[in-house]
Specification:
The chain is mainly β. It is built from 1 helix and 28 strands.
């Protein structure tokens, strides 16, 4: 080998699929090269048009993004035959049948969740060098920021302030909990937050005020006891307790599920039927790109 140490970066685009990082030397002194990387720039599109009768043109239906198939390929050079064998097995495991994170280290690092969608191809060039290619697909076409953003609030309240009797001079102090979280999406495509509600709380409600002033409400019809956590996934349209039990039938979204539009912010308000100082709402989201 050429004496390059683990972690050495060859330059160019650095890509990570599960535990394998392409473009660097790994801890086993294997040089991972990724020369082919297709599909990251654009997802599939679902578009339909209906031809106009007795007229020019067509009627356009809404356009939706489909899945994002991604092809990766390159070479790997190992210091020994056994290290090459091990590299092959690690690559086959990384191209997983289950959800795997694919990370691309651009100026703003982004990621997608992918699964194997084609047979990996591996060819030995020498006893120490292999040529490989893999096809994976992201069911969710968004490319997300690797940085997870979070915000937390209790129910709105004001405590403290001036209480009689008092003597001069006096100071008026009060502690205010706004019950609100501001969530910002710096990407180019709408993103969908996850809400976590920790009890005790009675019939909690999450109101998301959109940039145009409209409000999308999520209302849970039951109470949460101390230690209960309700997880609302606005992308999957699910509501589950932390133990995995579905509570979707008790959650209503009459005005639609909330999103955070591209390049915009929304205000997320936490409310409940009765006040409890220990009730907590946490919002989690990532900026997203098309």
């Amino acid at each position: 080998m050429d004496g390059l140490q683990p972690g050495y970066w060859f330059g160019g685009l650095r890509i990570q699929l599960g535990p394998i990082t392409f473009g660097v030397v790994d801890s086993a002194y294997v040089h991972w090269h990724c020369d082919t990387f297709e599909g990251w720039d654009a997802a599939e599109v679902r578009a339909e048009v209906t031809q106009r009768e007795a007229d020019h043109g067509a009627w356009a239906a809404p356009v939706y993004l489909g899945e994002r198939p991604i092809t990766l390929g390159g070479k790997a050079t190992a210091p020994t035959r056994s290290a090459a064998d091990d590299a092959i097995e690690r690559l086959l495991a990384a191209v997983s049948l289950t959800d795997t994170t694919l990370t691309v280290y651009e100026s703003i690092p982004k990621q997608a969740t992918v699964r194997r969608s084609g047979k990996p191809l591996i060819r030995r060039l020498t006893d120490k060098t292999i040529e490989w290619s893999a096809l994976v697909t992201a069911a969710d076409p968004r490319r997300y920021a690797t940085a997870l953003q979070t915000g937390t609030t209790g129910l709105p309240s004001t405590s403290g302030g001036l209480t009689e009797p008092y003597t001069l001079p006096y100071t008026i102090t009060a502690a205010t909990v706004t019950g609100s979280i501001t969530a910002t999406n710096t990407g180019t495509f709408e993103t969908r937050p996850v809400y976590l509600i920790d009890g005790p709380v009675s019939q909690p409600q999450v109101l998301t005020q959109m940039p145009d002033g409209t409000v999308r409400a999520l209302t849970y019809g039951l109470d949460l006891a101390t230690g209960d956590r309700l997880i609302i996934d606005t992308d999957a349209h699910t509501a589950t307790l932390a133990d995995g039990v579905s509570r979707r039938r008790f959650l209503s979204a009459p005005s639609g599920w909330p999103v955070i539009p591209a390049g915009a912010s929304v205000a997320i308000q936490f409310q409940a039927a009765t006040y409890d100082p220990t009730a907590l709402l946490t919002a989690r989201w990532r900026s997203a790109w098309i």
